[in-house]
């Protein structure tokens, strides 16, 4: 499978979870931690980030320079990760929940697989880490750490188009389902860079107070806010308890449109942001309320 759901993955094929890594599972950006400490430094890295934001240079071009500035052996780089990274306090329990329920959980990232795997090994242990598949770019790292070279997953300006990877995984899972059914795809993220993947999801979780949530509110994209992975676990448990995954799929991903749009669609474009955030704190945003009623999310 292109998405690499490994031999360790659960057997369930009708649902799959994809999560961003930096800012989502971990509060910090792994690349920034390494580059600030062992590469070109925070000041120059911020200048490079700005070149991406202004469109002067592509993400891939800037990332090649950032990663190429590293001069640190891999094992030493993991020491920086342990020192500076903070994991979501409820992520490990959430992943245990995924294993118990037989739900494949995948990290999907613009980062480098050796770094991401190394971090998961450090924070989760090798046994639990190997139950998580990583869909990302690869890397060539010299033994002495003098050369860090990204091996890009896709030949484009992003280096890794997450939307393509999710489509590939959906297509592979679909082969295992009867009646031309499509799996329920859940995506978890925090930033605007997650939008290509978010648009492919049937159910979208956006970390509260960060840019992905703001973008969704501004542009009328339906989502469920979360503060920790415990919030996500509760919502997914409701989906499973409903016994009907079809109702949570986008219309184009349903076998039948019998649920259709009869419930209408709620958009956040006209909602006052402050009021929306007050609703978030009460854990009853319009989207969460719809989940409590078992109504489909349909973007």
Structural features, described:
This protein is α/β, with parallel strands linked by helices and 299 residues long. It has 13 helices and seven strands. It has helices at 30-38, 42-54, 59-68, 74-84, 91-101, 113-124, 126-129, 162-174, 195-198, 211-219, 229-242, 273-281, 286-292; strands at residues 15-19, 105-112, 133-141, 148-151, 184-189, 203-207, 224-226. A seven-stranded mixed sheet has the order 4-3-2-1-5-6-7, sandwiched between helices. The two termini are 27 Å apart. Residues 1-10 and 257-299 have low confidence and may be disordered.
Instruction: Report strand %.
Output: 5-15%
- Main sheet makeup: 7 strands, mixed
SSE-based structural type: alpha/beta
**What is the global morphology?**
globular
What is the rounded distance between the termini? 27 Å
Which segments are poorly predicted (pLDDT under 50) over 5 or more consecutive residues? 1-10, 257-299
Helix content bin: 40-55%
Total helical elements: 13
As laid out across the biggest beta sheet, the strand order is 4-3-2-1-5-6-7
Mean pLDDT: 84
Question: What is the CA-atom radius of gyration, in angstroms?
Answer: 19 Å
How are helices and strands ordered from N to C? Answer: EHHHHHEHHEEHEHEHEHHH
How many β strands by DSSP?
A: 7
């Amino acid at each position: 499978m292109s998405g690499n759901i490994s031999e360790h993955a659960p057997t369930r094929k009708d649902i799959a979870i994809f999560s961003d890594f930096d800012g989502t599972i971990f509060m910090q950006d792994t690349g920034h931690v390494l580059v600030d400490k062992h590469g070109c430094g925070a000041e120059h890295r911020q200048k490079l980030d700005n070149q991406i934001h202004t469109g002067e240079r592509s993400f891939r071009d800037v990332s090649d320079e950032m990663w190429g500035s590293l001069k640190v052996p891999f094992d030493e780089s993991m020491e920086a990760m342990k020192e500076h990274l903070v994991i979501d306090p409820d992520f490990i329990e959430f992943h245990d929940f995924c294993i118990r329920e037989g739900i494949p959980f995948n990290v999907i990232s613009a980062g480098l697989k050796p770094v991401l795997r190394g971090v998961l090994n450090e924070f989760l242990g090798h046994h639990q880490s190997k139950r998580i598949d990583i869909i990302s770019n690869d890397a060539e790292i010299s033994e002495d750490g003098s050369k860090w070279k990204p091996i890009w997953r896709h030949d484009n300006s992003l280096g890794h188009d997450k939307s393509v990877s999710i489509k590939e995984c959906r297509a592979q899972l679909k082969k295992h389902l009867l009646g031309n059914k499509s799996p329920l795809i859940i995506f978890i993220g925090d930033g605007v860079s997650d939008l290509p993947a978010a648009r492919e999801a049937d159910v979208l979780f956006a970390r509260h107070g960060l840019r992905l949530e703001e973008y969704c509110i501004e542009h009328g994209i339906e989502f469920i806010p979360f503060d920790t992975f415990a919030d996500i676990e509760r919502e997914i448990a409701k989906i499973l308890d409903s016994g009907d995954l079809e109702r949570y799929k986008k219309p184009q991903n349903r076998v039948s449109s019998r649920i259709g749009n009869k419930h209408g669609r709620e958009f956040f474009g006209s909602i006052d942001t402050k009021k929306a955030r007050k609703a978030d704190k009460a854990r009853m945003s319009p989207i969460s309320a719809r989940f409590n009623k078992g109504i489909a999310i349909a973007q």
